[in-house]
Amino acid sequence: MGALFPIVCPFCRAKTAAAPEAFVRWRPEGGRSEAAESLQRQAQTPATAPGVFSAVCPACDKPLFLELVVRGEVLLDLLPRERTPPRRAVAQLQPSEVLKYEVVGPRPPPGPALPPSVPEQFSSRLQPLWEDAHKGRNAEGVGAACRWLLLDVLKDIGAPASPRRMFACKSEDEAIGPRLKAACAAGLLPKWAETRAKAIDVEGKARSRDPKAQVDYVAAVLRAAYPGF
Q1: Based on the structure, what is the number of domains in the chain?
Q2: Residues 22 and 70 in one domain
Q3: C-alpha to C-alpha distance for 189 and 159, rounded to whole angstroms
Q4: What is the spatial distance between Cα 111 and Cα 129, in angstroms, rounded to a whole number?
Q5: Which of 3, 27, 151, 179 could form a disulfide with 50 if both were Cys (CB 3.0 to 4.6 A apart)?
Q6: pTM as predicted
Q7: What does the DSSP 8-state code read for residue 111?
Q8: Collapsing DSSP states into helix, strand and coil, what is residue 68?
Q9: Residue numbers of the domain that contains 50
């Protein structure tokens, strides 16, 4: 494996590091990207140029593209010449040779960004809620479904409910607030999970609610509860 570059994966939002694997394209100044081999046909080698390299997110195994800005001679050394192999392998690239870099694709499919460690029973329920929220459909239904999903997540990670009270009107097992508070106190979730829940009225006590904010909140809780990185 070659040099590792810190990234935020566009698919699973993992803060990880990816290594360039193959030099596939380069970008002339002010122009569109071209096949890597076209660099050898330039009348003059550019002083610096962005090279596009294939890579893989180590957290979710999705393919990525890294754009690394390096000296033109460095890119040329990565290309095979007539009947001769490249002077250098991509794995021999050093971070000190890279002037700047960024993830340039591909664009992830629409939906909440979740790591692969999130149980499928939860991620599959959140996807249609994300679609409804972003299309402005069934706001009340989205809010209710988010609350039930959040409650199931809290139960799954072991957040305890408050002790049952005699003559309680509502089962304490279905109350989100006490479980959420207990989860944060026990370190099962970060402290922001409780404060942010109150800010967006996750428990649905008010009429004016933002379904997008509720879906984004549940996605954030899932990433915190099942990091997997």
Answers
A1: 2
A2: yes
A3: 9
A4: 9
A5: 27
A6: 0.64
A7: S
A8: strand
A9: 5-105
